[in-house]
Heme chaperone HemW
Amino acid sequence: MKAAYIHIPFCEHICYYCDFNKFFLQGQPVDEYLQSLFQEFKMTFDPTATKELETIFVGGGTPTALNERQLEILCKGIRENLPFTKGEFTFEANPGDLTKEKLKILAHYGVNRLSFGVQSFNNDLLEKIGRSHRVQDVYRSIEQAQELGFENISIDLIYALPQQTLADFRDTLQKALELNLPHYSGYSLIVEPKTIFYNLMRKGKLPLPSEDEEADMYRVLMEEMEKKGLQQYEISNFSRPGYESKHNLIYWNNEEYYGFGAGAHGYINGVRYSNAGPLKKYMEPISEGERPVFTENSPTKKEMLEEEMFLGLRKIKGVSVSHFQNKFTLDPYQVFQPAIKNMTERGLLEIQHDHIRLTEKGRFLGNEVFQAFLLS
Ligand SMILES: C[S@@+](CC[C@H](N)C(=O)[O-])C[C@H]1O[C@@H](n2cnc3c(N)ncnc32)[C@H](O)[C@@H]1O
Ligand SMILES: C[S@@+](CC[C@H](N)C(=O)[O-])C[C@H]1O[C@@H](n2cnc3c(N)ncnc32)[C@H](O)[C@@H]1O
Ligand code: SF4
């Protein structure tokens, strides 16, 4: 394992679309939570399997919702408990909550990549989706971060938001690209059960763009990124060469990683697991010296073959046939013969030298392609 994900499940407000594991910050036992995290590092980390981590990703929730004191404790605890010297160290940040002091703390502890949850450059839309930050906060936070020497900065955008038009999305994209950042993510809105948006949708009160409009937005996203020299390297991710997210590539390459924190998932020594999400259920076992694992599953060979394909096909480069053969001593063309044939005939998949990959049309219908790779 050369990657670690660390989950900070606190937010200063709850966005209408979000179903990640998170709790309203006020009144939460944040200090205790951080101590539990460090205990979890100690009881989970396997020094024989990992000499040095190559990537650390601190996500949430909102890691930057912690106050300065807590943020410093978190960074210090990470550096004291996990072996890491020179790799990619990402923190997710909410544009509104990142003060100069907090940025200085992150810089001091070697954080070298920031991923901002910007979502949109339209203040009306930001309000409608329940964000607390406004466009001005984005500019301020990014400027401050750059002044302090952060240059590997990414922003997340969401499209197909309620009442969003193609013209609006174009405008957001243009403003995002004017910032000249080395990395962008563009996600289409997923209306997840138990979110405020889901309830509105059930009542018929969520005016979403049509599927065609959503596809148009995705097309424009890809076109505009390309025009700016940002290479698409995954269905939703674009970067200047060399600025791909190394951490996320580890997921798509179907490699193992540690997952620490409430609700985090990990993949260690052949076992995929997820931690308990509720804070009490996460912290209690740890206080008794046990890992807070909630679900555990050791993928069978068949599941591993499937995962290799549907994770790998998310990358624009696709799945390397020779790597697949070396890893599994099986030929993907044989294992997945019907799926490859069918999806190629439908123009959703193509073979390029050593790689099996989605066609441009396939990128719009990724889920359909991934499903075809489930072995019966
Ligand atoms: C879990 S959030 C954490 C980042 C930080 N808390 C923030 O919101 O700024 C990570 C990213 O996932 C994306 N995301 C979250 N919920 C989504 C949804 N329902 N549909 C599409 N994208 C979503 C957003 O772009 C968000 O920035
Ligand atoms: C949606 S992605 C956004 C990544 C961002 N676009 C970037 O380039 O760095 C990040 C979110 O995925 C979730 N996530 C990532 N890895 C995770 C893991 N191992 N366990 C649980 N959640 C994870 C977290 O909610 C995190 O905030
Ligand atoms: S999108 Fe980010 S800030 Fe909003 S509720 Fe989810 S984790 Fe918190």
In short: Residues 211-227 form the longest helix (17 residues).
